[in-house]
From TrEMBL:
An example Gene Ontology biological process: negative regulation of TORC1 signaling
UniProt keyword annotations, A-Z: Methyltransferase, S-adenosyl-L-methionine, Transferase
Protein name, as recorded: S-adenosylmethionine sensor upstream of mTORC1
InterPro entries reported in the protein's UniProt record: Bmt2/SAMTOR (IPR021867), SAM-dependent_MTases_sf (IPR029063)
GO molecular function list: methyltransferase activity
Enzyme class: transferase
Native source species: Amphimedon queenslandica
Positions contributing to S-adenosyl-L-methionine binding: 147, 166
Protein family: Belongs to the BMT2 family.
Entry's transmembrane regions: none
Chain spans, region Disordered: 1-26
Lineage, highest ranks first: Eukaryota, Metazoa, Porifera, Demospongiae, Heteroscleromorpha
Known function: S-adenosyl-L-methionine-binding protein that acts as an inhibitor of mTORC1 signaling. Acts as a sensor of S-adenosyl-L-methionine to signal methionine sufficiency to mTORC1. Probably also acts as a S-adenosyl-L-methionine-dependent methyltransferase.
Record EC number: 2.1.1.-
């Protein structure tokens, strides 16, 4: 697929229009096409399976996203990648957010006050508190970049051990994977050691639950045509994150600060319903940036009931136009 991406390079802005306009149209057209197919009554699983087989479209989309990310978007600061990097530092560093929230959790347990963490998962002592913190120290953070395209986090190797995945990788270091359907293996299912990432060649076959410290969805959720798929992605991120790990979500929105405040409140309610707690939110000029901390293990009711109950909260403005 990498070779095909190179061939596409000479075609993508050959019609005389400004390159950024052509690239942006390519991306938007794919999003629109997927939503239109869904709204026309085609079952979601069929819309997605046909999309996965449409290699020409996947290649064009991947090439357009890569060119935008390292071109026009970089000229405007490349803020989404930097925001994710700084969020990781802010949360995990000495004296950072994780240390502070664990200290608060410990105090709340001592005084019998309610907390977002399940009681059995609270630090029970100063020693327990230190053990949790030390489990994230002295090593690189395991980061899963979903919809990575070109593996932008790879240059931060001193901090991150990156697993970059995409439907149509734009560079060799990104592994091919359909995150919505890849197998997630249980740690308790087999006594033998299961690899965190199992792959055949450049294609991921399975991922191991509770293996990652950070999961990143950068411009991922708006790509997906349905609320069910967006919620499923968040549920899968929860399953793959270690307790106290973080989910970082970046989604595009060039509207003013308060235009879609109700939409962001709905996202928060749904994602926290899985077993997360939002600890960071920024509205940039063109982006919403959200950080969630995993505060619970698999819910007793199971993920399927949460998906059914909460998925309608994960809407985007384009959904509303058609509904």
């Amino acid at each position: 697929m990498a070779e095909a991406l190179e061939e596409e390079n000479s075609k993508i802005a050959s019609n005389g229009k400004p390159e950024q306009e052509v690239l942006s149209s390519t991306v938007k057209d794919v999003h629109t096409q997927l939503r239109e197919q869904l709204y026309s009554g085609i079952p979601l699983d069929k819309v997605w399976s046909v999309h996965l087989k449409d290699e020409d479209t996947l290649i064009k989309y991947s090439k357009a996203m890569h060119s935008l990310a390292v071109g026009p978007w970089m000229k405007h600061g490349g803020g989404r990648i930097q925001w994710c990097l700084e969020a990781c530092k802010e949360y995990f560093q000495d004296g950072g957010v994780l240390e502070k929230v664990l200290r608060k959790d410990l105090r709340r347990k001592e005084f019998g006050n309610p907390t977002q963490l399940e009681d059995s998962l609270l630090p029970k002592s100063e020693e327990d508190y230190r053990t949790i913190l030390e489990s994230f120290r002295g090593r690189r953070l395991e980061l899963l970049d979903v919809g990575s395209c070109y593996n932008p986090f790879s240059e931060y190797r001193e901090l991150l051990d990156v697993t970059a995945i995409d439907l149509a990788p734009a560079v060799e270091s990104v592994l091919q994977c359909d995150f919505l359907n890849v197998k997630i293996l249980s740690r308790s299912r087999d006594k033998e050691k299961v690899p965190m990432v199992h792959k055949e060649g450049k294609i991921i076959q399975s991922l191991l639950e509770e293996s990652f410290d950070v999961v990143v969805f950068s411009l991922l959720l708006s790509y997906l045509p349905s609320t069910e798929q967006r919620m499923e992605c968040c549920i899968r991120a929860h399953s793959l994150l270690a307790l106290h790990g973080i989910l970082l979500i970046v989604t595009a929105d060039s509207s003013h600060q308060n235009r879609h405040v109700d939409m962001m409140k709905s996202w928060r309610s749904a994602i926290e319903g899985i077993g997360f707690q939002r600890w960071k939110y920024v509205k940039d000029v063109h982006l919403h940036c959200l950080g969630f901390r995993k505060t619970a293990l698999t819910p007793a009711s199971g993920y399927s009931s949460i998906l059914k109950e909460w998925h309608r909260n994960i809407t985007i403005p384009q959904d509303r136009i058609k509904e």
